[in-house]
């Protein structure tokens, strides 16, 4: 259902219009991104996220233009699932959610906090405006992923395993800002001493007749 709608949306709207919509929702997200940076102890990053919101909301006309990136202020991507990961909460089971696709138990809990506590769209009123904004953001995001989903269908022999592994590796990289520590199994394999090849028993010298 989401794919045909996203395809029609992409075909009907020019990329520049879709880009402005993307920028608008991305700007709203910078507020919650800043909160998560602070919760993870990255206070300067949180300050920069707040500055991004101020500049884009004013000079960028309600976030339609990403002037903060043009000014050299980095765009980040933090959520409460990543914050839980930084606090030491494990992934839990891998889950495929309807519409939202890949997740884990930890990230699903984090997503709930993101939506019900940290998403400015949830405070839009009247309710019809809020629901329309949710739908528009979802369709815009799905349209951005159309090319990626096509590559997945063409490249992966086992799409489930490919998508699961890619998601888990990406989330681990996000949690540790691209500098993830080695996993226990990987560390054990690297530190284990190499096994010496088995020695053949020495042959006795042939007895002279």
Provide a short characterization of the protein structure:
The protein is mainly α and 209 residues long. 62% of the residues lie in helices and 4% in strands.
Strand order of the largest sheet: 1-2
Q: Percent of residues in helical segments?
A: 55-70%
Distance separating the two termini:
89 Å
Number of helices: 10
> N-to-C SSE series?
HHHHHEEHHHHH
Total separate domains? 1
Shape field: globular
Largest sheet, strands/sense/barrel: 2 strands, antiparallel
Indicate the structural class.
mainly alpha
Q: Give the number of DSSP strands.
A: 2
Mean pLDDT: 88
Computed over alpha carbons, the radius of gyration is: 24 Å
Strand percent estimate: under 5%
Core attributes:
single chain; two-stranded antiparallel sheet; mainly alpha; 209 residues; globular
Provide an overview of this structure.
With 209 residues, this protein is mainly alpha-helical. It has one domain (2-184). The chain is 62% helix and 4% strand. Strands 1-2 form a two-stranded antiparallel ribbon. A hairpin with a 3-residue loop joins strand 1 and strand 2 (101-104). Helix 5 crosses helix 6 (105-117). It is globular, with a radius of gyration of 24 Å. The relative contact order is 0.11. The mean pLDDT is 88.
Write the layout of secondary structure elements.
Layout lengths: L1 H11 L2 H25 L3 H16 L8 H4 L9 H7 L7 E4 L3 E4 H13 L9 H18 L1 H10 L3 H17 L8 H8 L18
Antiparallel strand pairs: 1-2
Helix pairs in contact: 1-7, 2-3, 5-6, 5-9
